[in-house]
Specification:
mainly alpha
Length: 325
């Protein structure tokens, strides 16, 4: 299988991941009405980590994880946790629309981090795609930025964290066993979320028998733990080896598009013209990033250019050869 086929398969799987995240957003919203957010995250990522340990046994992967893999997985897991934590705290001080838009700005930050940390220059089509996606996110958010508060700053820091998680995954995924990297990353988020739950939330609510009898809670935990966490981050870590961080960010920008479509399909939320326009712009930005336009001109070394300017020698243009007598 050639590199183009690998890239298209990778992009298709990552788009499926964005679809899972977008369509499970409603489930998470309903679940955290009963369980506090960090408590929900701690349980969700713990279940996901235990599921990954079963995959270890199924695939015959050793449980003896090298220290380097533990360090890298914990490092990336820290950025992933910061993304979730900062987004949660931002909602205490700002609107969901502003938080959603600012969090989505990770799509614009990934090309910058890729250039700084990886030395990867985004193609012009990818840059235009990013601009279209940012415009689409703004239309989806319908946010008023006449004033900036601490929640907006937290949401912007959240975008930085999610962007760095994508870039560092691209950096270390080719060097580290995928299952090791994802498992340590998942358990890091579970551990840090559990700590925040103990510090900032009434975690005792999770111990009440009534909390687990609510269908919205156990349904959301099971679906998000296995589909939206274990399998999703396994797919991201594996398939990022075959595509660029900027393309990954643009594909993940489709998450709010799928969330809006899920609201329309399941919650009977009307799709206004502004929302549809935003969805179209994000989709156009993702498609544009897939296009590889041929270069208009290629730079040649100076000596090659000079050589191309010289006429081709032909027998008629060569001076006659005098024979010695």
């Amino acid at each position: 299988m050639n590199s183009v086929a690998h890239r298209w398969i990778a992009d298709s799987v990552l788009l499926l991941v964005a679809f899972i995240w977008g369509t499970t957003f409603v489930l998470v919203q309903n679940a955290i009405e009963t369980l506090p957010p960090f408590t929900f995250l701690a349980i969700r990522f713990s279940l996901a980590g235990m599921f990954l340990l079963l995959i270890f046994r199924w695939r015959g992967v050793s449980y003896n994880i090298p220290l380097k893999h533990v360090t890298v997985g914990a490092f990336i897991g820290m950025w992933l946790f910061l993304g979730y934590a900062l987004q949660t705290f931002s909602l205490l001080y700002t609107t969901s629309g502003k938080s959603g838009f600012l969090t989505g700005l990770s799509v614009a930050m990934v090309p910058i981090w890729s250039l700084v940390l990886l030395g990867v220059k985004p193609r012009p089509t990818a840059i235009v795609g990013v601009l279209l996606a940012v415009a689409g996110l703004y239309l989806l958010a319908f946010a008023d930025f006449s004033s900036i508060n601490r929640g907006d700053i937290l949401a912007l820091l959240c975008a930085i964290a999610f962007g760095l998680q994508i870039v560092y995954t691209a950096k270390y995924a080719p060097e580290v066993e995928t299952l090791h990297l994802v498992t340590i990353q998942i358990f890091t988020v579970a551990l840090l979320s559990g700590g925040c739950s103990l510090l900032f939330e009434p975690w005792e609510r999770a111990l009440k028998e009534g909390a687990w009898s609510v269908p919205a809670v156990y349904t959301a935990l099971l679906i998000t733990a296995f589909l939206a966490t274990s399998l999703a981050y396994l797919a991201q870590t594996h398939f990022q080896k075959f595509t660029t961080p900027t393309r990954v960010a643009l594909i993940f920008a489709m998450e709010p598009v799928f969330a809006a479509l899920a609201d329309y399909w399941w919650m009977d939320v009307a799709l206004e013209t502004r929302t549809l326009t935003g969805c179209i712009l994000i989709f156009a930005g993702m498609v544009l990033a897939e296009i590889e336009w041929p270069p208009i001109w290629r730079k040649h070394p100076k000596e090659n250019r000079n050589r191309e300017l010289l006429p081709d020698p032909s027998p008629a243009s060569l001076p006659p050869i005098r024979k010695k007598r």
